Amino acid sequence: MIRAKCSSFAVLVTLLSAATAQLTVHAVAQPRTGSVRLERVTASHPLPNGIELRSATAIIQITALRDDVLRMRVGTSGQLPEDASWAVLPASRTATTNVTSESTGATVGFKTAKLHVAIHKDPFGINVTDSAGHVIIQDLPSRAIEFHGASFRVYMKSPEDEHYFGLGDKPGPLDRRSEAFTDWNTDAFGWQQSTDPIYKSIPWFITFRKGVCAGIFLDNTFRSSFEFNKEYRDAYSFGSEGGPLDFYLVYGPEPKQVLENWAWLVGTTPMPPMWALGYQQSRYSYYPEAEVKRIVGRLRSERIPADVIWLDIDFQYKNWPFTVDPERFPTFEQMIKDLRAEHIRTVVITDLHIADQPLAHYKPFDEGIAGDHFVKNPDGSIYEGVVWPGKAVFPDFTHKPSRDWWGTLYADFVKKGVAGFWNDMNEPAVFLVPSKTMPDDTQHRIEEPGFTTRTTNHLEVHNIFGLENSRGTFEGLLKLQPNLRPFVMTRASFAGGHRYAATWTGDNSSTWDHLRQTTPQIVNLGLSGFAMTGADVGGFAGSPQSELLTRWIEVAAFHPIDRDHTATGTNPQEPWENGTAEDVSLRRRYIEERYRLMPYLYTTTEEMSRTGLPIMRPLFMEFPHGAADGGPIDLSTGNAFMVGSDLLVAQSPYPDEVDDYAVALPPSTWYDYWTGSRIDPTSGRKGIDNAAISQPEVHIHRTLETLPIFVRAGSVIPEQPLVQSTEEQPQGPLTLRVYPPTTFGAECSGSLYLDDGISYDFKKGDFLRVNFACRLSAQGLIVTVAPREGTFQPWWKLLSIEVYGAAKPYTSASVTLLDHPAASPVTTNFDAEHHRVTALVSDDPKGVQLQLTY
User: Fold this and answer.
1) CA nearest 267: which of 500, 70, 464?
2) In angstroms, rounded to a whole number, what is the distance separating the alpha carbons of residues 660 and 671?
3) Could you give the 3-state DSSP secondary structure of residue 14?
4) Of 22, 210, 245, which is closest to residue 126 (Cα–Cα)?
């Protein structure tokens, strides 16, 4: 058996309108179908923070949590659904702001400082605009909100130039327009571009039209669906088979504002340990101990930087979670210590299915039975399903006492020095049944602060089972080591699950198409809140061609998580395998580049943890008005993406093609990352349909050696000397790669963030933040390193300031300390091949300034 493991403004508001229609519209029952359509407002009254409307027994509330975040709740029987959420933070869910009522003879509504909500009373209709008068959303005239028994559906207009993104790890193009999706977490081994559903349910999407962006979140854990322009060419819709109609509209208008507001609603990704950004080696499975040590030894002897090795299920005794096979791993704890001596941390798998072994003195089972911690059947007996250990039972993760107990199971591994944990198979996956999961009538207890204590069936809990599994792991690790940042990897999750775990795209395949899929999947996960994300490098199912593995390792060096992983029975695909000496050299070179860029990656990661902005970004996030018509750039299936705000990675849209290709660059001056030269894009070309493509482009000659990377003018990129792990202290100066603007008077900027990489001491001020700037004038360039913030001490004493785009040497250079303005001359070096001028200067906590004169 093969193992299956490892709106825009308008949209939000439309959703809001649909829900409003529900609550406020006259409810027309259709007994033949059991459906209810809300058609007209029969009563309304203002609220301090919104409005409440009625139609017969239906009630709807539209409230403002902030000036730019609205919430709509609908109940068809005169009562609103339970005010609780697994995803939305309690403080955000209960936030409120005052609004101003706005009414006419035909409409009722309100306004905030940024939004106007107008509901037409008869027939029902909703119109939401922003304070500048832009229409954000209008409902679909023929139908708005419909209930069919326990299910519901919301319909909204979809202008032909509106685009949709998000929904997590769904395969397919970056733009969700003309696609349809189902949210039902599924063990989807061998998924393809057309496969749906797969592992995660994140009922959040953003819309983008004419420079205006918003987001819609359907806070519903039941099986849900989303379709864009499939049923109606001019509409999109979403709905669920059960549960509440409770959704949020998050206004921008810029994409970054939408994502920051989304993070306000559901939280940010916590700061991960720095080692999680290092290269990670895995397969199903490395065993016995000697093989694990051999792999680590080879990483070090090949001088391939690495931080982590992963142990899949074969390290366990008979696949029982939280055990170690004493024959394969007789000195497990000593092995962990030996690996740590090589600066390698170990991540082990801890699947949630507990082996059903009542007579084996198996602690997880015995404690689970004694504490009544397992999911039950309708008759009260414990539910059993077949997974890797054979017959297994499952913790009841929505029951807080059981989730807390689960967290205690990690104590032994933590004591032995295991650094991170992998929650796989948590859709939950169950073998030998067509559904691949628990029966719908399996019983789960909800006992959680903020929720009514009750028992419900699997239909309500299925999509949050993986979320609460990873939450139990994360919170348990924090209790065991309160000042150590946990690292948890989960396969299944729900909106808000990024607060507890990183994730990956699941059981992909070793094909060119799956390499191509990694960019839209990781980008859409980032837009959905999951910024610490990666894909199995080289592919999980099957064995990659050598060129495929090389190209995958190259581009993965710029992904948030860089983990090489493959299935049992496949050929070895460590970086030194399956290729020529040239392949190995190229793979090493790109992993090394990741480690040189670690200061930039870590700084971008800290920004993610603080703001919610993802590490890996679509081009339109940084250039929301970058297209020729003033709209967003990069809405196609192209594989270009941003790393942070300043690096653009331009992988081929079809990596297996041999043809050269063109990349439409956003409006800015760009530098070639590898050569340092300024890019001179062409003015455009003809598309396949002979239509003019006016966006400036750069022609890419496809080679195996070079993954095209560009740097935005006006950037300062910090880099470090090469190390073999993030734990190794770099030796030498901190490099600041300065990419000047091309206009006199224009400025550039950058920053660096650093801390100890493992603890929460940064919350007490033990961190380092340094801001960089430069200014171009007719006389030359001034580069400024601002005074340090925080108490953490850096590893460097010197700064190597590299100024790119230089065509000739500067005539003079001097450096000053910001608190002591006397200038001292400094020697510079001109490198014509890389178009750069370099100056080596001493750093100073109070700041320094380098002046280069033509």
Assistant:
1) 500
2) 19
3) helix
4) 22
Q: Which two tokens stand for residue 167?
A: 């929904």
Nearest alpha-carbon partner for 535 in 550, 553, 548: 553
Cα–Cα distance for residue pair 565/429, rounded to 1 Å: 20
Alpha-carbon distance 147 to 186, whole Å?
A: 26
Does residue 486 contact residue 478 with C-beta atoms inside 8 Å? yes
Other CB atoms closer than 10 Å to residue 662's CB: what's the count? 17
Distance, in Å, from the CA atom of 790 to the CA atom of 778, rounded to the nearest integer, reads 35
- Is 427 known to be catalytic? yes
DSSP one-letter code for 633? S
Would strands 35-38 and 616-617 be described as parallel, antiparallel, or unpaired? Answer: unpaired
Q: Distance (Å, rounded) from C-alpha 373 to C-alpha 363?
A: 13
Contacts of 26 (CB under 8 A, 6+ apart): 38, 39, 40, 41, 42, 55, 56, 122, 124
Instruction: Look up 102 and say whether it is catalytic.
Output: no
CA 70-72-74 angle, to 5 degrees, is 175
Closest C-alpha to 309, from 331, 286, 333, 334: 286
Catalytic residue among 146, 312, 427, 536: 427
Predicted local confidence at residue 211, as pLDDT = 86
Cα(222)–Cα(94) distance, integer angstroms: 22
Q: Is the dihedral of CA 172, 176, 179, 185 positive or negative?
A: positive
> What is the mean pLDDT, run by run of 10 residues, along the chain of 854 residues?
36 34 34 63 95 88 97 92 97 98 94 95 85 86 83 93 95 95 97 96 94 95 97 95 97 97 98 98 98 98 98 98 98 98 98 98 98 98 98 98 98 98 98 98 98 98 98 98 98 98 98 97 98 98 98 98 98 97 98 98 98 97 83 70 97 93 90 94 47 68 96 97 98 98 92 98 98 94 98 98 95 94 93 96 97 94
User: Do residues 534 and 504 make contact, with C-beta atoms less than 8 angstroms apart?
Assistant: yes
Decide if 539 contacts 566 (C-beta within 8 A): yes
Q: How many of the other CB atoms lie within 10 Å of CB of 614?
A: 31
Catalytic residue among 475, 507, 607, 844: 507
Sheet holding 100-103, edge to edge: 100-103, 107-111, 115-121, 124-130, 135-138
Task: Examine the residue annotation and report whether 379 is marked as an active-site residue of this protein.
Answer: no
Q: Which helix (H) or strand (E) holds 598?
A: helix 598-611
Structure tokens at 117: 């909500």
Concatenated DSSP letters for 252-293? Answer: -SSHHHHHHHHHHHH--PPPPPGGGGSEEE--TT--SHHHHH
Say which of 396, 424, 554, 672 is annotated catalytic: 424
Scanning the structure block, which residue is given the tokens 């990069």?
Answer: 634
The strand pairing partners of 103, in sequence order, are 108
- What residue ranges define each of the domains in the chain, with the CATH number in brackets? 9-167+202-266 (2.60.40.1760), 715-853 (2.60.40.1180)
Determine contact, residues 565/539, Cβ cutoff 8 Å. Answer: no
Which H or E run contains 606? helix 598-611
- Answer for the pair 313, 328: CB distance below 8 angstroms, yes or no: no
Whole-number Å distance between alpha carbons of 526 and 549: 24
For 262, 435, 486, 497, 579, the CA distances from 270, given in Å and listed in that order, are 15, 34, 9, 11, 38
Sign of CA pseudo-dihedral 237, 239, 244, 250: negative
Gyration radius of the chain over CA positions: 28
